[in-house]
C-alpha cells in the first residue's frame, strides 16, 4: 500500500509544528529510551527536532486514515476481543512497513470504580495490546512507551459504564533512534522511501537547512 503524501503534508512535516507527540512526563514503563537529539549530529538540534516531530505528526495522520488507532474492551476486562485482535492485526501490518518508526500505546478505563484500580486496568489493557503487537511481528523495541491514564482523559464524560472510555490508543511516537537510517541522519531517504512519489532518487535529495524544505541538489 503506497499512499502518496501531498506536497502540503511534506512541507508541514519538514518545517515542523507546535504540537508534540512525545510528552516527556509520560510514564515509559516499557523501558524505552528516547534521546533529545534525532539523527545526524552535524545538523542543528532545532532542525532535527522540528523535522522529525513534524513528520511523525504527518505519519500519525496517515496511520489514523489507513488503520483504526483504537481498540475497545469489555467492562472490567483487559482481554482482547476478536474485533480488537482484527484491528491490531491491521496495526501490526502497517507498523512493519515502517521500520524506522517507534509507536506508543496508551491504556484507559471508564470512571466506574476506584481511580487506582482503573489505572491498573488501563495499564493491563495497554500491556495486552503491546504483547499482541509483538506476537504479530512488531519488534518490541519499536513500542517505545507504555502509558496508563486510567479513568483520566475520558473520551465520553460520564461516571457510568461507557465502552468508548475502555480503550487503548496506538500512536506514532517518532523515529526509532537505533534504526541505521536514523543514526546515519538519512532523513531524505526515510521520507522518500515508500512515503512520497518523486522522479528524483533519494540520494539526490537533501534537507535545506535554511527552510527545512527538501531541495534538489
Automatic annotation (TrEMBL):
Q: Which GO terms describe its cellular component?
A: cell outer membrane
The entry's keywords: Cell outer membrane, Membrane
Q: What is a single Pfam family found in this protein's UniProt entry?
A: OmpA
Domain OmpA-like: residue ranges: 60-176
- Where in the cell? Cell outer membrane
Protein name listed in UniProt: Outer membrane protein OmpA-like peptidoglycan-associated protein
Amino acid at each position: 500500500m503506497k499512499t502518496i503524501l501531498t506536497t502540503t503534508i511534506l512541507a508541514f512535516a519538514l518545517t515542523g509544528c507546535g504540537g508534540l507527540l512525545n510528552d516527556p512526563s509520560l510514564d515509559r514503563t516499557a523501558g524505552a529510551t528516547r534521546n533529545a537529539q534525532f539523527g545526524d549530529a552535524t545538523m542543528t538540534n532545532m532542525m532535527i527536532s522540528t523535522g522529525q516531530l513534524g513528520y511523525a505528526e504527518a505519519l500519525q495522520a496517515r496511520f489514523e486514515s489507513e488503520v483504526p488507532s483504537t481498540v475497545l474492551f469489555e467492562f472490567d476486562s483487559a482481554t482482547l476481543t476478536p474485533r480488537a485482535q482484527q484491528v491490531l492485526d491491521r496495526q501490526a501490518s502497517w507498523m512493519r512497513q515502517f521500520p524506522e518508526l517507534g509507536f506508543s500505546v496508551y491504556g484507559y478505563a471508564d470512571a466506574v470504580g476506584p481511580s487506582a484500580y482503573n489505572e491498573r486496568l488501563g495499564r493491563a489493557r495497554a500491556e495486552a495490546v503491546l504483547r499482541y503487537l509483538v506476537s504479530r511481528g512488531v519488534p518490541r523495541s519499536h513500542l517505545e512507551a507504555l502509558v496508563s491514564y486510567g479513568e483520566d482523559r475520558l473520551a465520553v464524560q460520564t461516571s457510568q459504564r461507557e465502552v468508548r472510555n475502555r480503550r487503548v490508543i496506538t500512536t506514532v511516537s517518532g523515529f526509532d533512534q537505533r534504526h541505521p537510517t536514523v543514526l546515519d541522519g538519512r532523513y531524505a531517504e526515510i521520507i522518500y522511501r515508500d512515503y512520497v512519489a518523486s522522479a528524483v532518487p533519494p540520494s539526490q535529495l537533501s534537507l535545506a537547512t535554511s527552510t527545512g524544505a527538501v531541495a534538489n541538489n
